[in-house]
Every structure is written in C-alpha cells, then in structure tokens.
Structure prediction request, 307 residues.
Amino acid sequence: ATRILYDCDPGHDDAIALVMAHRSPAVEMIGVTTTCGNAEIEKTTSNALRILEFIGAGDVPVAEGCHRPLARPLVLGTADGPSGLEGSPYLPQATITTVGRHAVDFLADALAAEAGPITIVATGPLSNLGLLILKHRAVLPKIKEIIWMGGVFYRKSEIITPTEFNAFCDPEALKIVLDSGVKLKMVGLDVTMQVLVEEPQYAEFRKIDTQLGKVVVDWLLFYEKLHRNSMGVGGALHDPLALALVIDPTLVRFRPAHIGVDLRGSYTFGATVADFWNERGEAPNAEIAYEVDADRFFDLLYALLRD
Ligand code: BDR
Ligand code: CA
Prediction:
C-alpha cells in the first residue's frame, strides 16, 4: 500500500475522500491533519475525528493545524453548512481525540520517521503545508509529491469561476508551496467539475445497502442541494478525485507548466495562471490535471463503499 499523510478540511467531499483512503487496500493513511477552510478549525477537526472513528479508522493519528490562512483573514466555505458537515444524522460525536500537537510539527516528525519519501494528499487551503515548508525545511526531501485539490486553469466549462476556493482561501500558502521545489500535482476544478453526482450516480450509491453507504448518501444529498442552487449541477466530488489518484494515477492526465498565483487582483485574487507556452521562461513548478475518466472514478468509489 502507498503510505500517505492527508491534510484536509472536512467538508463533505473531504469526508468521502477519508472514507476512500481508509477503505482502499492500496492506501495506508499514517496521519490526518486538519486546516480551516470549509469551516473553522475546531469544526473541521471534530468532523475528521467523527468520520475516522465512525469508519473504524480511530487509530489513525489526527493533528489539528492552522486556524486561519497565513497572511489573510479567515474565509469560510459555504457549501458544507455551518458545521462543515451538515446532514449527518447518523454520525455520532467522536470519543477519540487529536495527538495534541500542531499539524506542522506532527507532519515534520512523521516525514522524518519515514524510511523514504512519501505522498501528501491535500484537499483544503495550503496553510499547513506552507507553514511546514517555512518551519521544517529539513524534511522536505521526504515528500515524494503533494497531490492537491486546488486551482482552475482551462475553464472548459461555463460554470467555472476564475478562482478555486482552496487557492482563494490561502493564496500566499500556495505561493510558498509553488516556490518550494516540492513536486506538486494540482487537481483543479477543470477535472473535478467533471465528476458530478447526478441521477445515474445517485442510483448507484443508493444500491449500496450498508450503514456507510447510507451516511454517504446523506452527505451527498446535503452537498448536492447547495451545488445545484449555486451552480446548477450535482455535487462535484473534488477531493475524492485527488485522493483516488493515490489508488489509480491513470484516472487523470497531467501536463507540466509554470504556475503563478494572483496575490493582488481585484477580480482574480487567488487565481492560478498556467504558462503553457513558457512565455515567462520559468521552469515548470507543477503538474496540472487536464483530463479525467469520470466513469472509472465512480466505479472505483462504488467498489470501495460496497466491499
Ligand atoms: C474545494 O473547496 C472545498 O469546498 C471542497 O472541500 C474542495 O476541497 C473545491 O473548490
Ligand atoms: Ca476540501
């Protein structure tokens, strides 16, 4: 199995990614760190603990991270309701707790303890990883790659915004990660807005007659409503797609480019800009997802919930 550290802000889609990571025999989660984003840090941490305990992953260490972006006031997402995980009537409060250390120190020790470099999956604003890079430079060679759900580049779809939430929340942290030399794969809205839960997908989810299947359907029902109201489409499984790439890297195709992030724009603040023609003459600092096999992604997800 591929050993990973997972940094997230659950969040309904982060929650489904946590489920996938735990259920897949191809993934071994050696730690979960939380950040603010979809809700305040206390809530995303509590949600991570509730989810992990509920799915039988209560032994995975959880460390709480940044309570606000590195250089900006806190912005909270709205898509997941006030608790960050509304619509979970069957999810009890957690009895497990965090490791009691800050996420960046936990990450540094976890990386240092690894024999070789390992993957970090990140599906929230990059505050924790930005801070890790500033505070614990010595462990950076232990990061094989960061697979991050964030950014938007091609805007192939008319329903896509110029700035993606995780990038918009903490663009300075993203800049630190982009400048760090750590290998970064960006799974942006271009591909995640193509893994949508619409009627045919619901029908499949509903067939999964387990307690876990029911909880996932509850999450999707809540999540979908807000998506449909604001964007007119079903729930996009942004974060699960990023996580799924640990299990099957061929689900998405990537291309390298130098990426800039707009730290000043009035309408494009937090926008990620790819220099595909290398007009700025700078070496690529990320790989950007541009094509996804949505059907294969959903088959993988159904199978993980079923077995
Ligand atoms: C990202 O923002 C959050 O709302 C989701 O959890 C996802 O990580 C999508 O833009
Ligand atoms: Ca997220």
Remarks:
- The chain is about 40% helix and 20% strand.
- The mean pLDDT is 94.
